Amino acid sequence: MKSLRKKIEDRVRETIIQAHRRSGRILISDTTLRDGEQMPGATLEPEQKLRIARALEEAGVHSLDAGFPASSDADVKAIRMMVACIRKPVLTALCRTLHSDIDIADEALDGLPDHKRGVSLFCGTSPLHREFKLGRSRSEVLQLITNSVGYAAEKFRIVAFSPEDASRTEPDFLCQCYKEAISAGATTVGFPDTVGLLTPEKTHDVIRMIQDDVPNIERALLAVHFHNDLGLATANSLAGIAAGANVVQCTVNGIGERAGNASLEEVVMALTLHADQYQRKHSIDTTKLAPLCSLVEQLTGIAVPRMKPVGGANVFATEAGIHQDGLLKNPDTYLPYRPELVGGPDISLVLGRHSGRRAVMHHLQSLGLPADETAVIRVLTRLKELPGGTVIDGRLLSCITQGE
Description:
The protein has helices at 4-23, 46-59, 73-85, 99-108, 127-134, 138-155, 171-184, 200-213, 233-242, 264-273, 275-278, 289-300, 321-329, 357-366, 373-385, 394-401; strands at residues 27-30, 63-67, 90-95, 117-124, 158-164, 188-193, 221-226, 247-250, 317-318, 348-349. It is α/β, with parallel strands linked by helices.
């Protein structure tokens, strides 16, 4: 028999879950500090993790996947540092289906209020994982799930469970795993596309299937977690959201193993710009996104591709004369959103072989140089003579106008 206190706690937890579900709000969960850091070459020191955690808190993420405490003392140290000063997001720790992992997570997260600490358990469920990784039968995997989730629920109010390689797990068994995990005490169940092979259409179907075929799904939040092996992680995340997922897990700049994870800034901006389509509010301050991208690039050493949405160097830059002319007349002519919406840098009109009169005149005037027709023609002539890919700076522009 459950104690009266336990029954009350369970009822409160279910009430909170139902309130989240009814609100329609999408909860943004960040895993930059755990899954993102697993990217080769992206290892972070505890102090660096704390800097990113603070920036994520300021940006408004709902929860932070703070690390895998059983994997290293450095992860434990980083989590303890976060416990001391991170107040708004929920901090969660990754665990295998081992009681010892859960115990270490409990110690690492000690000191946080119950509603701000949680564990995220994972267990391989696909035929490949059962046979080659775990050497377990279906029934044995279910036993692992129920035992570990039940044990975690004794220590944590927030318990997430994800069937690793869910997208290659038999649908009937996948739903059975979710059912047993929720019955054992899971408050969130995740759908990870571990090897990044799904399409948006298949994503939508499987998320709807989970909601239709898991009888107790209303007692938990449903999260999605996509990898980018086909370049579809953001699209798949949005498809999952459209199908009714409550939580989306992402990384800043999309960093992560292999081709990376769903990009937090891309998902957030798609939800923001297409609020009429998704009708799902979020709590992210979009003006923090570009600085967040820069910070993660700086601390991990993983360069952001120039063409990367939101944080890439070319997002607000153009060399094409027609585009430059349009941007000078009205920035909205060739931008989906203005730089200030994401806290990005000013629009950059790059001078090169493709530039036109308006951009040249604009640059000359901004530098206090002669901007008459003769000066503009002189600069344009010199620009057309430059080797492909060459751009010029203010010093060279001054030399050209002076005939040097």
